[in-house]
Design a protein that fits this description.
By secondary structure, the protein is an alpha/beta fold. The protein has a single domain, classed as 4-Layer Sandwich (Nitrilase/N-carbamoyl-D-aminoacid amidohydrolase). The chain is built from six helices and 15 strands. The strands form two sheets. Strands 1, 2, 3, 4, 5, 8, 9, 10, 11, 12, 13, 14 and 15 form a 13-stranded mixed beta sheet that branches. It has a two-stranded antiparallel sheet with strand order 6-7. Strand 8 and strand 9 form a beta hairpin. Helix 1 runs parallel beside helix 3.
Amino acid sequence: MRVAAVQMRCGPDRDENLRRAAELVEAAAGQRAELVVLPELFASLGRTSAMRAAAEPLHGPTLAWASHHARRHHLHLVAGSFVERDGTHLFNTSCLVAPDGGLRAAYRKVHLFDVEVPGATTRESDTFSSGAGPIVAPLGDHGPLLGLTVCYDLRFPELYRIEALLGAAVVSVPAAFTRATGRDHWELLVRARAVEDQVAVVAAAQWGTSPDGIERHGHAMVVDPWGRVLADAGDDGDGLATAEVDLDWLAAVRARLPSLANRRPAAYPWPDTGGSDS
């Protein structure tokens, strides 16, 4: 399966962001990508007031845009994340759209970025509410399962382990990682999640200085379940990290090194599948 992680520098202007995102999705389709992942907050990224102003319902203009382009290019599109308004709550929401334009899954970011790091001090919980838990969804009738996550989730391995145990073979990570943390942690965390959960990770990224004054790390990448970086978009400029994910190789890794067998963490409510714990 050919996948593409998109790298962009986005601002508060949704129309301009979507115009540029459309060009990158088209470029990915031209490289035969079957799954394209856009960055976190690709529709609008700015200061808190701008984020609140950009809020829209789940079935709003950003999802309509994603549906059109997924259908136009006949590919699975992860609409990075956008600011979803649901009643009085705002969520940082990532959507999987199928090649027929239908919404297959919507994941609300669980772990909110509340940190005090020089160059990256942020309180995401001042704007967003936290999502409820892990989401996985199929990539087509006979394709692998995709686990959905967003940015700061990378630091919480329990979420990735649960999605892997729910069957995810590929995980999407739309991100706007800060340069202050990303220079030391981004690749390390992406590769760690791939290795420990034996999944391919498609990690999209923001780059450059965003309108909120925070420098973004870039380096959209694709990593295989052995932890190898298959593609890296670098730290400067819009672009794509495109690579072939070998699902047979993924199955072989899991068969030869069965570290996922019978592991059930209790960090989140676990669905009753009738199996036994060990």
